[in-house]
Write a structure and sequence with these properties.
The complex is a heterodimer. Helices cover 81% and strands 2% of the residues of chain A. Chain A has 7 helices and 1 strand, in the order H-H-H-E-H-H-H-H. In chain A, helix 2 runs antiparallel to helix 3 and helix 5 runs antiparallel to helix 6. The two termini of chain A are 34 Å apart. Chain B starts with 7 loop residues before the first helix and ends with a helix. A 3-stranded antiparallel β-sheet of chain B has the order 1-3-2. In chain B, strand 2 and strand 3 form a beta hairpin. The chains are: A mainly alpha, B alpha+beta. Chains A and B meet through helix 1, strand 1 and helix 4 of A and helix 1, strand 1, helix 2 and helix 4 of B.
Chain lengths: 190, 94
Amino acid sequence: MDALEARDHLEMVDRILAQAERGTSAATPWLYIVWGIVGAVLDACDQLVLVAHYPPRLFFFSGACLLVAIGVTVAYGIRLRRMERVSTFERQIGRVFWAASIAAMVVEIGAGHLFPGWAAAAIWSVVIAVPLLFVGLQGHRVTMSGGVVLLASVVAANFVPANLTGYVLAAGMLVGLTGSGIAFAMLSRK
Amino acid sequence: MDELLLSKIRLGVIAELLASEWAAFSELQRATQTTNGNLGAHLSKLVDAGYVTEEKIFVERRPQTRYRLTAHGRSAFIAHVEEMQSLLKVSTGS
């Protein structure tokens, strides 16, 4: 092999890796978008019922939204099995999300009294931020930005008046997670 | 240099699999833009060398062949790319 051929081969490898790294399945952004919206709805409903004293039946609405998101996730899992390619990136972020979510669920169910007020909602924002930052540190700017926004929303929620706390966390979910999903969808179309 | 990876198609297959948990035959064909028979022959060589594993499954009653990169294939790819980079450095004198 001569230098010219080596250059040609290396350029091809770069091209393939750049496309493969960027590529996510068409379904993945929807998962971000749906969970971001549902997370925001849950935070906003908590705010409305617990602080603004709206009727507790609003929790039925947030529960229904949660079921829809779980349904979308199950459908995504089934679709993933049928796909022709699963990127390492998708698999990796999926595993970290599951691990972080299970850890948060165990803690919230097993030690709920340790997290009064908005702590539980804040924990979910942090739990979602961790996998986004984890993947972001490997060079994915979209997930890095999403993780930073989610963390910033938790910090901001700590300083705003009590009648805004839930809305700030909801905004973090919308911008950080749904925003990441929209950015992913736009990148996959390119 | 790794003799097996001197082929551009085989190198392309490994590069595609490097960023994939797994990829189906059709997806590798799209990435390498080669014919069925040609890609099949190259994949057989990679499987025989232990660079890639092959798995045949049914998806909605249709057969699908999936390929995964092995640790051996990953190491071989990295070593080969490093050698190509060294060759380029030597030729450019840097």
